[in-house]
Each structure stands twice: as C-alpha cells, then as structure tokens.
Amino acid sequence: MTSIRTRFAPSPSGYLHVGGARTALFNWLYARHSGGSFILRIEDTDKARSTEESIRAIFEALDWLGIDWDEGPFYQSRRMEIYREHIERLVRSGHAYYCTCSPEKIQQMRERAMATGAKPRYDGTCREKGLGPQPGAVVRFKAPYTGTTVLEDVVKGNIVFQNSELDDFVICRSDGTPTYNLAVVVDDLTMEINTVIRGDDHVMNTPKQIQLYKALQAPLPVFAHVPMVLGNDRSRLSKRHGATSVTAYREMGILADALINYLARLGWSHGDQEFFTRQELIAKFDIKAVGKSAGIFDPVKLQALNADHIKACEPSQLAPQLVPFLARLGLEARDDQYLAKVISTLNTRSKTLVEMAEGARFYFLEEITFDEKAAGKFLKPAVAPALESLIQKLEQLEEFSEKALESAFIQVMEETGLKLGKIAQPVRVALTGTSVSPGIFEIIEVLGKSRVIRRLKKALEFIRSRSG
RNA sequence: GGUCCCAUCGUCUAGCGGUUUAGGACGCCGGCCUCUCACGCCGGUAACAGGGGUUCGAAUCCCCUUGGGAUCACCA
C-alpha cells in the first residue's frame, strides 16, 4: 500500500482564514493519522493578488496552529517550466490546441449565449485549425463533447457531470502562464499527491481536472470535497461575520489546540465526543467521517471549548502562552513558579487568555488601586478591627496554607462576630482592588505574606483617611 | 438562469430500517454548591423542512416540492 500524500495549496492573497485553516487541518490530520506526508504549496500564479506579506501570514498562522509540513513550501511561480512542458505535451498529443479568438470575441460569444438562454461556452472555432504557437494565442484543452465524467468523492459520493456541459477551457494564457486548473493538476501529479482534500467550492473544477489527468494518462487521486464554513446568516464566511482570520483568534486569547479542536469538530465527528487533544484528533480523525453539509462557524462554542482546553492545560504549559497577554497589559511575569500558581487560580474561570490576563492583573501590580464602587461598598470603618486583627494573625503565621489561613479567618470571625462573607469581601478589595477574584484563601496563599500584609495595611489606611 | 451539492433542536452533531418517549455539546432558563465571580453538579427548553411512495415497520431507502449553498474567467 502506497502511503498517503496530502497537500494544502493556499493562494497568498490575504491572511489565512478559519475555513482555509480547516482545510489545511483535515489534510494534515489525515496525513498524520495514516503516517503519510503533508505538502505545502503556495499558489501564487496570480501576480497581481499574491503578496509576500500574505505568504508570511500563512506560515505564521500554520506555525501557530502547529500544522507542520513534510515537503515544500513549493511555489507555483517557480514552476513555470514544468507547466510549459505539460502544456506542450497536451498539444502534441492532440489534447489541446492554440486558439487565436480574441477576448472580445469570446465575450460576445458569451453574451449572445446568455441572451438566447444557452450555456456560455467556447464554440470551438479554433478547435480543428491546427494552429501553431503565436503571439496573443492561448492554449485550450480539447474537451470531449459527449459522454460523462464522474467524480468519485470520498465525502460526497459519486457526482456525474455531462461532458456537454463543459467546454474547451483555457489551460495556457496568451502570456504563456498556466491557468489554475492546469497548474493544480500538474502540481498534484508531479508532487505525487494521491489524496486531494479541499473545500467543496472546487467540485465544479474537478471534472475539468479529471479530464486533464486522463489526457496526461495519469492516475486519479482520491478526491474529498469538504463542506464550506458559513457565517451565522448561512452565507459564506466573510469579514462582516466578525473575525475570520486565524491570527485574530490568537489575539483574542484562543488556544491553538482549542481552535483545532473546534475546526475539526465542525463537519467531522467521532460519536458524542466534543473535547479532543491534538493526539486524539490524529488518532481518531477519518476523512470518511466528514459530513456532507455546510456548517456555521460559532465563535461562542469556540470560546466554550477554549475554556475547556484552558482547564485541561497544565499551568506550566499555559504560562508561556499567557505571557504576551500579560505584557499587553504592561505586566511582567518574572517568576515561572509564581506565574504557574497564578494560573492555577484562574484557569477554571477564564474563557480566553485575554480574560485570564485581566484577572491576573492584581497579582503583578506593585501598587493596586481600589475600584471606586468596590471600595465604597466594602472598605468601611466597621471592618477596620477585623482587618487589624487579621493582619496580626497573618504576621504570626509561618506557613500560608489554606488550612492555616482558614483557621486565622475563623479566629477573626469569632473575635469580631462577623460572618466570613463580611470579612472576605473587604479583604478581597484590599488585595485585588475589586470585588471579583479567585477564592480568598487561594489569592492570599499565592500573593504571599509580605504583599498581603502590605495591601491590608494600605486598605486600613484608606479606611482611616476616609473616615477621618 | 444552467449545472452541481446539501437538509435532525437557534448552532455543532449522534443516529447508518425496528434497541428512540430521537442522544450529546454550545446557548438559553431554573436549582444546588458558595467568601465574590466563575468552575462544578442537578434539572428544564428545543429538531427529524413539506408531500408522496417502498416496507410488517422510516429520521434512516426512492421521488417530487420547498429552502439553503457552490459554481458558471486568459482569478485561484
């Protein structure tokens, strides 16, 4: 059995969007699952729209997603000789011919056809002229007029096309460059791609490509056309549906593993399982289990899944990923152990790394500032004795374990007659500046003795300055 | 418009002729837990697009209708 060879072939005319990422992912997963190879090819024959910047953006996105390739990147723009050879081969074998019909004439032909309600197709004027190469001429593929071309698709099943619907499409432009369909086939052929997984917006191209394969006497690859990713209004996902680029989700604090999990689950399923690690995805992914219908991209579910991945991730593993988000807030984490502890108090209450960084703010600030509302509500003279007592108790404590802290609090409660809730909130505001945070014992333990006592004292001063 | 594809809760989906009062997840709504916010736990809401067949029996197979999507370049 020959090994699976898949590929991802984006055209670099913009950032990598989630739909493209999913196509790349399916190809990658299938190759990794089957121990095959995944090849990256950049389809940059359209010089007007291809940019260096887009190419970099694609690499960056794939790199972040952890989708690596075994061969390439190959660039179509550097393979012109190969296309030329194949085009000439097709002309020589009688499968293609030079055509001198002007674009205007073709345009007229099309308009006339439209007007009479007929199919807009090339009328074959030059088909049998036996023209040779000449300036301004294109090369057309001599497509069969009768019969059918069938696409045996792994996800869609058999699709039959009437050859009478197809026409003699251009394979070589008048400037000598190949058109898309020719280039794709030649590339997939020469790169020995045997499994073509791509978006189903390509199904209509496939009969043309199949005919090209046949004319080139090459074996057909296995085709798998995966359904599209739609926006919430069922139309093709685009900018007006919100963020569509892979990088945008990274900026939003989505984990690469979560995006991958979500994208894989969109259109593919493995029973009722929702959460998949990267390894599970590789182990369980099967292109045959991909569904036929298009799916709507749901950022809310992505977030929920992201929360699950954050929870499942070891704090020490998550730390390096959180650092840039802290930096964005002007916060610097110098101590890895401290950061890991911080994360362990935040990972069950954060849906994204952005949220987590915001929640971590008070851990890294030298001087915290009190939120007006929270301070007004909780830092009142009545709690001053409790805070004083707590400071005393904590100063005497050698170890800040949850147990020790709890008993310290209980003592304060007994002394002051206040319920834990009445003490915890003021302490929370004192330590974090806000009324929302992880558990009070947790944050005291992580912050450590000196910070805690300093902040409690500051709160006490605050109360006195206000009441005095 | 032609051609092609698709059709289970709002969304992602399980289901592959009987085990189904159609299951799970997200969302939403209750409740429990509780030092705040979350997490977690428990419960609820909500779907087989419509119509014909085939069959003892259909969400599952066939046909039609409807709805959605894709595509019709010397763009990829």
Give the key terms.
Rossmann fold; 468 residues; RNA-binding; 5 domains; elongated; three-stranded parallel β-sheet; Glutamyl-tRNA Synthetase, domain 2; single chain; mainly alpha; three-stranded antiparallel β-sheet; Glutamyl-tRNA Synthetase, domain 3; 19 helices
Brief summary:
The chain has helices spanning 18-34, 52-65, 80-92, 103-115, 180-190, 206-215, 246-251, 256-265, 278-284, 299-312, 315-328, 336-346, 353-364, 372-378, 384-396, 402-416, 420-432, 440-447, 449-467, and strands at 5-8, 37-42, 71-75, 96-99, 138-141, 148-153, 157-162, 170-172, 195-199, 222-226, 229-230, 295-296.
> How many separate domains?
5
The CATH topology of the largest domain comes to Rossmann fold
Question: CATH homologous superfamily of the largest domain - what is it?
Answer: HUPs
The CATH architecture category of the largest domain equals 3-Layer(aba) Sandwich
Distance between the termini: 86 Å
* Continuous helix count: 19
Average pLDDT, all residues: 94
List the uncertain runs. none
- CATH top level label of the largest domain: Alpha Beta
Strand content: 5-15%
Rg measurement, Å = 32 Å
Describe the protein's architecture and organization.
The protein is mainly alpha-helical. It has 5 domains: 5-73 and 181-229, HUPs (Rossmann fold), CATH 3.40.50; 81-179, Glutamyl-tRNA Synthetase, Domain 3 (Glutamyl-tRNA Synthetase, domain 3); 239-312, Orthogonal Bundle (Glutamyl-tRNA Synthetase, domain 2), CATH 1.10.1160; 314-364, Helicase, Ruva Protein, domain 3 (Orthogonal Bundle); 366-468, Arc Repressor Mutant, subunit A (Orthogonal Bundle), CATH 1.10.10. Helices cover 49% and strands 11% of the residues. It is built from 19 helices and 12 strands. The protein has helices spanning 18-34, 52-65, 80-92, 103-115, 180-190, 206-215, 246-251, 256-265, 278-284, 299-312, 315-328, 336-346, 353-364, 372-378, 384-396, 402-416, 420-432, 440-447, 449-467, and strands spanning 5-8, 37-42, 71-75, 96-99, 138-141, 148-153, 157-162, 170-172, 195-199, 222-226, 229-230, 295-296. The strands form 5 sheets. Strands 1-2-3 form a 3-stranded parallel beta sheet. A hairpin with a 3-residue loop joins strand 6 (148-153) and strand 7 (157-162). Helix 8 (256-265) packs across helix 10, helix 11 (315-328) packs across helix 13 (353-364) and helix 15 (384-396) packs antiparallel against helix 19 (449-467). The longest helix is centred in the C-terminal third of the chain and has 19 residues, at 449-467. The chain is elongated and about 105 Å long. The chain starts with a strand and ends with a helix. The chain binds one RNA strand of 76 nucleotides through helix 4, strand 7, helix 5, strand 12 and helix 10.
